[in-house]
Design goal:
The chain has about 260 residues and is of the alpha+beta class. Helix content is about 30%, strand content about 25%. Strands 1, 2, 3, 4, 5, 6, 7, 8, 9 and 10 form a ten-stranded antiparallel beta sheet that branches.
Length: about 260
């Protein structure tokens, strides 16, 4: 089956147009930096200084609304929830989502958020292309690093049906990628999971096997002529001269005292 040049041109143009529409930003989308600016303008500069959590769903590329939980000492649970969209910000009042059952991981400093949601989305696109994963929208979550104030992005790549396709976890301070997880779904429910935390450990184990560390007991000594002189009719010792290594000792049973 052959196509004339005009038909090929129309096919290529259709594919490019479809891809452009899929990547087109939602005009009602709001970036995380704009959402925080709106909160600070309405409630005060230091109102969102300590962020417990910041969520935005169905971003193309940016979500239409953000739900932000911040520290507020005037609240009973010391936390307050604010919803922000392109037009307004709404004070939802005290937040009981965390204390007392679900303790906050930490409190992210808004001053340390150098990578906003737009830059985080660009990094997600780069990682998804490298993993050969396509997605339809993004769910955003900003929290703090465990027991610290460094902000961390958790970006979830989703399909049109709401199926999780992968996640990228990175620093919102310097864009350092902590972890990537991708789900390759096949027929009959088969899912191949590629987790950088696990695969990174396997790579390190493989490199250790290929390049083992040298053993001191196996090195030849050349400075001592007595040690290097030939030995004749030397009976082999009845007791091994080298103690079992750590690996061997771990699998041997411990004798009773």
């Amino acid at each position: 089956m052959t196509f004339d040049p005009k038909t090929i041109y129309l096919i290529i143009f259709t594919i490019i147009l479809a891809f452009s529409n899929a990547q087109e930003d939602d005009p009602l989308g709001v970036s995380s930096s704009k959402a925080l600016q709106r909160v600070q303008l309405q409630f005060g500069e230091y109102f969102a200084d300590k962020v417990v959590e910041m969520r935005g769903i169905r971003g193309q590329s940016q979500p239409r609304e953000w739900t932000i939980v911040v520290n507020d000492e005037r609240s009973q649970f010391r936390l307050r929830t604010v919803r922000v969209d392109a037009e307004k910000s709404i004070n939802e009042g005290d937040s009981s989502k965390f204390y007392p059952e679900n303790l906050p991981i930490g409190f992210a400093s808004s001053k340390k958020i150098k990578i906003d949601s737009t830059k985080a989305f660009e990094i997600l696109i780069k990682e998804a292309r490298a993993a050969r994963i396509g997605f339809d929208y993004v769910n955003y979550k900003l929290r703090s690093l465990e027991f610290g104030d460094e902000p961390v992005w958790v970006l979830s790549a989703m399909s049109a049906k709401g199926v999780l396709l992968g996640q990228v976890i990175m620093s919102a301070y310097d864009a350092n990628i902590f972890r990537t997880i991708w789900y390759y779904r096949g027929s009959r429910g088969y899912v191949k999971i590629v987790d950088s935390a696990l695969d990174g450990l396997r790579k390190n184990e493989t490199s250790d096997e290929v390049f083992p560390s040298p053993k001191i007991n196996e090195q030849k000594k050349t400075d001592d002529p007595i040690e290097n002189s030939p030995r004749v009719n030397q009976p082999s010792p009845s007791v091994p001269s080298i103690e079992p290594g750590t690996e061997e000792a771990e699998v041997k049973p411990i004798g009773s005292n």
